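Give me the fold.
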Amino acid sequence: MLRPAGRLVITVPYGLLRYHDHKAPMMLVPLIEELRARGQVHAVELVGRYLGVVAAPAAQRSPRADAGLWRQAALIAEQRITDLDRELEEGRRAVAALSKEIGELRSARALREHLEQRIGELSTAVDEMRRRDEEQREAIVSGRERLACLEVELDHLRRELAVASTGSYSSS
């Protein structure tokens, strides 16, 4: 109830706002029509994501005031659409940036997997080369031992030849 000269000032969430205390969306036209059924709406403003409305008890309505009210309502709706378009565009840019980042992360993951596979291949190759190196070192050691034995045998044979050449060696 309002006094005859009283004013009703309200703010309500405008549109779909996902908050725990906003049970149902409030749209501009139904709000204005509801208030006009009970009195005169003097002003409607967009305050962030809320509608601010000033109304008074029923008085004589003028068509000019109604036209101004609906013009105000249209401007508010356009502003809200513009705000939502801006938010949507920001959301699209954010999604595009995240999609790009996901692609980069997938590429990085694929590169990491490739590098891990390549590291495994190289590690196997290094192990094989080390095994071959060890075999070759063993073969070199064995060859040196064999060479040393052959040098001793050659030295022994040279001495025998020298003895045989000097005639100290008797043949029977």
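The longest strand covers residues 39-47.
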